[in-house]
């Protein structure tokens, strides 16, 4: 009897895990293709093939679900970047190139980050947690930039550098008339030029 009860609990827990994963995957897909305001909990439920009420057993609201999806997508990026700079010289160019490559190849995170930055005021109480992720990115770039610039220039340079990388992606990622590989190579060339421009300001 006890074994059957354990199996029943295990199956129920497995079902909950599957439901949660399906909801998150549906949220990632929708949040990366539409603005935050355009994605309703009902639409996510339909996409995940669950009832709208079931979502609230796992997530408090739309903001909580967006935060969870964003954190999952960005954690892989942060892991890649941490591994990239560990024990390496020329960290700034390596870091910038790896960031460009990752964001270029991972449309979900690219679009979610773009929507988050454009609609920051709509994310309410979870904004601070999302900003913590951006701050971790800034911290990585700050340490790489510190090798080339005095500390009193770092704050604004980090912001400019990060904005410039994302600006290159937005401008050239889907540039018509060229192949995807050509667009990526062009962005990487401009990224290299950006890095060398900053290095010329070295103290």
From TrEMBL:
Protein's name according to its UniProt entry: TetR/AcrR family transcriptional regulator
The keyword Transcription regulation is assigned to this record: yes
Domain called HTH tetR-type: residue spans: 17-77
Pfam families, per the entry: TetR_N
DNA-binding region: 40-59
Keyword Transcription listed: yes
Gene3D superfamilies: Tetracycline Repressor, domain 2
Coiled-coil ranges (or none): none
Keywords: DNA-binding, Transcription, Transcription regulation
One of the record's GO molecular function terms: transcription cis-regulatory region binding
UniProt cross-references to PROSITE patterns, sorted A to Z: HTH_TETR_1, HTH_TETR_2
Listed InterPro entries: DNA-bd_HTH_TetR-type_CS, Homeodomain-like_sf, HTH-type_TetR-like_transc_reg, HTH_TetR
Source taxon at top rank: Bacteria
């Amino acid at each position: 009897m006890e074994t059957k009860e354990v199996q029943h609990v295990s199956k129920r827990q497995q079902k909950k895990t599957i439901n949660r994963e399906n909801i998150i995957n549906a949220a990632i897909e929708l949040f990366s293709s539409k603005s935050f305001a355009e994605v309703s909990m009902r639409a996510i439920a339909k996409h995940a093939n669950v009832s709208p009420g079931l979502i609230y057993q796992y997530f408090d609201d739309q903001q909580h679900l967006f935060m969870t999806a964003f954190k999952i997508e960005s954690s892989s990026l942060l892991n890649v970047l941490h591994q990239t700079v560990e024990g390496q010289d020329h960290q700034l160019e390596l870091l910038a190139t790896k960031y460009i490559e990752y964001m270029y190849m991972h449309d979900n995170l690219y679009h979610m980050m773009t929507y988050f930055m454009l609609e920051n005021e709509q994310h309410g109480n979870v904004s601070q947690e999302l900003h913590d992720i951006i701050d971790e990115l800034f911290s990585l770039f700050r340490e790489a930039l510190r090798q080339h610039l005095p500390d009193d220039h770092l704050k604004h340079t980090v912001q400019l550098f990060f904005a410039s990388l994302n600006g290159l992606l937005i401008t050239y990622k889907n540039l018509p008339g060229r192949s995807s590989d050509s667009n990526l190579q062009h962005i990487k060339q401009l990224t290299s030029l950006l890095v060398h421009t900053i290095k010329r300001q070295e103290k």
